[in-house]
Fold this protein.
Amino acid sequence: MQPMIKVENLTKRYAGVTALNGVSFEVGRGEIVGFLGPNGAGKSTTMKILTGFIPASAGQVTVAGCDVFEESLEVRRHIGYMPENNPLYVDMRVNEYLKFRAKLKGVARADRKERVQEAMERTGIADVQDRVIGQLSKGYRQRVGLADALLHEPDLLILDEPTIGLDPVQIRQVRELIKELGKQHTILLSTHILPEVEMTCNRVIIIHRGKILASDTPENLRKTLRSGGMVNVELRAPLADVQSVLPVVPGVASVTVTTGDDGMVYAAVEAKADADPREAIYQAAVQGGWTLRELTRSRTTLEDIFVQVTREEDEAEEDRRDQRRSVLR
Amino acid sequence: MRNVPTLLRREMNACFASVLGYVVLVFLLVVMGFVFCSSIADLLASGTTQITVMRRFFYWFWLPSLFVIPAITMRLLAEEKRSGTIEMLMTAPVTDFEVVLAKWLGAVVLYGLMWGLTGLYVLILRKFTGGLTSLDFGPIASGYLGVLLIGQFLIAVGVLTSSLTKNQVVAFLISFALVFLFVIGIWFGEYFARGTTFGKLFEYISCFTHMEEFARGIVDVRTVVLYLSASFWVLFVTTRVVESRKWR
Ligand SMILES: Nc1ncnc2c1ncn2[C@@H]1O[C@H](COP(=O)(O)OP(=O)(O)O)[C@@H](O)[C@H]1O
Ligand SMILES: [Mg+2]
């Protein structure tokens, strides 16, 4: 089956800025994909191209098999889009606005009322339907934006920073809603907040400076992109023994040992890639006759991966720049 | 063009919801009321006919339009750009031209409705002149047609201006300048180049010449076509400006 979104070698140059530089990725039907990157990474630009608001400078982009530039109107019928900052006509009432949008999106007159009602119910705004949009809280406005995106029952929802500017309670509600919507729609959402993708998405695409750095499930990213993580060990044992034994335990990459006032020894162990040295550490403790109080592994968070990946990329960029500079000299 | 009625309806609702619309309406009624009263005062003093009252009424149509047209068009595209709603609009399955056309049409309808209310003054005039017989409705109708025809062109210019900026005030100032240039500039040209070929040209394109004809009851098809095609071209350019986000 053809993917919902297929992007090949997408490049976008604004006057003087290359916002996207040879981006390629796919989104399959039914996926919830998180587009993750710091501000200015090119997330919004990609989404604006996908929705046909601006064209690409180069590259091929198809949505549901239609070219976004050649068959723009057709593509727009497949997409429910919520732009960054969720712009709405603030002078209109909620149901009036949704009715207007449903008409624009070509929802048949006979279905219109039902669709508007359904969208309002799914997003939980039926009780504010007679209120003027400008007087709603940000959380409710975000739901109006989502309801609008759902009106024509699109295959694909594209949501640009759907939780930006909300308070923690609203953020949780909107995330729940997105997860719920993910059961029936393919979703591409962008965010610069890490926990967001961990919580809502099946797959993460990390984008930085207009390039895709990684694309995988959050779990796989953790597995492949990072060493085995950190193991925290708390022992009652002679410090010198711990310092000499732990570093040579199989699967251990490095150890930092400190002592506490309580006579305990604390060891922060960095595991080698794809290794879990906890059992070996336990064995070493038994052999040495140490009392083991804690042996826990802290999992790599996406945050670590993100920082790591973007740092690597920045360093590589710096190297290239240095090289260029030395060539020029 | 399927979406134009939907978009137009939204435009009309936005107009009636805004305070500015009513301020502009009052302004129009006050200015034209003033013109009308002074004409009637002249009529009573010097005994000229009511026909001249209406001619003078239509002659001064440019004065309120100078402010009314920039005021009702400045918001149209500038505000959509400022607030970002243009992105919602243009990513719905509608074409850029549909949007521009609906914006223009909405302002034209509003402008027409506002002038329609000045019809009250005509009824008052009828009272003064003592009944239907002495009032000729033909020139009045064609006079209003002229107001609408020239107005719709200037509105197209206003829509174009509004597409050029995110700032309503800037849009107002530019379209005020353009309308001013069109009305007063051409009037000056006509006045100072009188008798030369240029003078003839100015006279030919002068809205004063056209308005005078309309107020006398003459509807020249060439004039109608001139203004309508001029608007079409301006709206075409506006669409290009709106599309220009695509090649920047
Ligand atoms: N209209 C524009 N004109 C010029 N540069 C732009 C424009 N829009 C975005 N950019 C630039 O393109 C880059 C990517 O921006 P954007 O896609 O908005 O990033 P993100 O949404 O990931 O924060 C940024 O460097 C930004 O400054
Ligand atoms: Mg963005």
About this structure: The longest helix of chain A spans residues 302-328. Residues 24 and 128 of chain A are 41 Å apart (CA to CA). Chain A has eleven helices and 14 strands. Chain A has a mean pLDDT of 87.
